[in-house]
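Because showing beats explaining, we think one record worth quoting, sequence and backbone structure tokens together, and here it is:
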Amino acid sequence: MGLKQNVKELAIKAGVNRAIVFAVLTYSWSILAGPLSIFLIITYLTPPEQGYYYTFYGVLALANLLELGAGSVFQLMAGHIWAKLGLNEEGVIIGEEQGRGELAEVLRIAYKWFFWVGSAAFFSVAAGGLIFFNSKAGTPGGVTSAWLAFCLMGYLNFFVTPALYILDGCGQLHATSKYRLVQAAAGSVVTWAAILSGVGLWAPAAASAASFAIMVSILFAKYRKFFDVLLRIKPRGLIDWRTKIWPLQWRLAVSVASSYFTTAFVTPVLFYFCGPVVAGQMGVIGTITTAMVNIPLNWVRCRIPEFSWLIAKKRFEELDKLFRRAFGQMALVALGLLLPVVLLLSGLHYLHYAWIHRLPASLPLGLFMLAAMFQLPVAAMACYLRAYRHEPYMYLTLGTGLAYAALVPLMARYSGISAVAASAALISLAAILPGVKIFFKKRRKWQKAAVTT
């Protein structure tokens, strides 16, 4: 009992709750499972197939990008509404009738948006991907069918996300984070089994299909009553999409679209200019740096529902104290991750295995890791400010995205992956100071406006 209590107290001091634990485990899983995935990929796929494998994910990210930030908007809307609601022991929504009506309308708007935008996005990206992949000489056999299958599975997964975003905003982040961990683990296991069975580039489609089946089964079993209540409520026009959602959504859409160029855009560009082998190396880098950003960022991101509730109740002193604590914890976790990752990868290069050319060189890897670390402060401040249901970083992220869009193809064509990595680090570093200025200016303005209303 004493040990359990000590562990609880330590977790509270470290800012750890169940949502953070499962979110961190999800990204930690990508680090722990990553070496085995990379080993299987470089052992059972040819170097060109490795490039196509990672580029599949980079190109399909365009479709997810075209949700235009809607998921985050619906999470924030649900979070502010949930301040008036709650769940009983049977998992049924309780609270104000108007609040339930508003939440039901947010859910309907979310699914309408995801249906129309998702359909257009995935069919467009599927067709564009066919042209892109078949533009290279020596394309391996089966690329077309494997790509189309992956797109179809991605399309189906797209329709699970609105339910998850609504649940996140409604105080269920601890549960949805756990389900995402199960989904990630199942996807990795299916990927390994598919690669070992010799299906090659069909492995991403198989993993995506498993992820879809698992998440649908969990949502149906755990939250059927939650969604039944909302779906039975008749629309009453309580939420006006044009005035309540669209002003935030279009700004966030610009930010999300711009962020594509700082992440998934790099791999397809290197595929085009430097070939599938270099694109495969970039895929390894992307796996590592994504985890290094997302694991520490969860200390702030998993607090977004709490930020929303505190803002709705105008408890700003408590809000700022929570954010400062979460930001400090995020910084410590980021620094704690950096050293072991550097040592591990340096050791792999030192050992000079026969397949070491399939891994990125130390210089571009180190520069991309620096770029990831430079992105963290602005990403954390964005989580805080977006909880006010505003998007103040639109112009900054747009400028950053345009800088990537201009420099990455230029550097890839004439100088290679190391120059691309150096450009990424410099652009991310340059964004920190304006990001800090925006944070303090908007925070003061919005808190003052809320107090006077």
Notes: The mean pLDDT is 84. The chain has one domain: 13-452. Residues 13-452 form one domain. The longest helix spans residues 97-133.
